[in-house]
Design brief:
The protein is of the alpha+beta class. It folds into 2 domains: 183 residues, Lambda Exonuclease, Chain A (Alpha-Beta Complex), CATH 3.90.320; 73 residues, no CATH class. 44% of the residues lie in helices and 15% in strands. Helix 2 packs across helix 6 and helix 6 packs across helix 7.
Length: 302
């Protein structure tokens, strides 16, 4: 079958492949730019590509690669196809790229995914794959120039499901327009605007430095307090104990009534619209959550 994508001879996971991947827009990048990725924002993608931090984390890549091989072998055995991993580049727009988990000689794409049981069940019941996976496959169809593919989800424990996906050329045109806009901005150094999911970077702010030190001390003290509290209350033989300037009191409270689980209440709630229920909602409240962060390892590979 004829296709317009240009085959690029890279071994997925190699140093050369990582550099090629960084200097273009791949399948997982497409879902970020389109806005459906749960992992990253366009601004984060921009910064990561500039720094080289968008390379897939090694242990995640290795884990995914091992399962990808299993999925591909099982798919080939069950369908009689010969899916093989291959990299493609768009013939006219070299920055549009795709690293395929599998591609057959008759122009069919395989997209192998490690997913949870809930996602697997939802796809089995609805026939609809996760939105960001759909975007990734449409990007692949556009880059390669084919019309059909199979999404195969696997939970890593033996359960899998295959779902046929077809190209939507109107969607691909809109997607590519967004990708071109992102890439042109990237080349000119125009950082995407902050979104609600982005963090404003203030690395040298003295107030944040003080807060970080205070949180570290607080977390350590909280852990120490919890341990000491558990040890002390474990030896209390009465419901009130006093000593060392402390009063320890043991109380028992009735469990909270879970109104929503009452069958009669469920029957009524099912008939009420979300808009109607919203009229009884209490005023919104806003608060800040402070947590220590480590280097992000949640990036999804293609």
């Amino acid at each position: 079958m004829a296709f317009h994508g240009i085959v690029v001879s890279f071994e997925q996971g190699s140093v050369e492949w990582k550099e090629w991947r960084r200097n273009g827009i791949g399948s997982s990048d497409a879902s970020v730019i389109e806005g459906s990725s749960p992992y990253k924002t366009p601004r984060q993608l921009f910064i990561d590509k500039q720094s080289g931090a968008d390379e897939p984390v090694k242990f995640i890549f290795d884990r995914g690669h091992r399962l990808e091989v299993v999925i591909r072998d099982q798919f080939n055995a069950s369908t009689g196809m010969d899916m093989q991993p291959v990299c493609f580049q768009h013939p006219e727009h070299a920055h549009l790229r795709a690293s395929l988990d599998g591609f057959s000689s008759d122009g069919v794409i395989l997209e192998a995914k490690h997913v949870g049981k809930t996602v697997l069940q939802e796809v089995q019941q609805s026939g609809i794959i996760p939105a960001h996976h759909y975007v990734q496959m449409q990007h692949q169809f556009g880059v390669v120039g084919v019309e059909t593919g199979y999404w195969v989800g696997h939970d890593g424990q033996g359960s899998s499901h295959s779902q046929k996906v077809v190209a939507d050329r109107d969607f691909i045109a809109r997607l590519f327009a967004k990708e071109h806009t992102f890439w042109n901005a990237y080349l000119s150094g125009e950082l995407p605007a902050l979104s609600a999911m982005d963090a404003l970077m203030l690395e040298d702010n003295p107030l944040l430095q003080k807060l970080a030190a205070a949180k570290s001390a607080y977390d350590a003290a909280s852990k120490h307090y919890a341990s000491a509290r558990l040890a002390a209350t474990a030896v209390c033989t009465h419901n009130r104990v006093q000593g060392s300037g402390l009063l320890l009191s043991q109380t028992t409270r009735l469990g909270q009534l879970d109104i929503a689980t009452i069958p009669e209440v469920q029957a009524v709630l099912s008939k009420l619209s979300p808009e109607y229920l919203a009229t009884f909602r209490k005023p919104d409240s806003t608060s800040w959550t402070v947590k220590a962060i480590a280097k992000d390892t949640s990036d999804e590979t293609e």
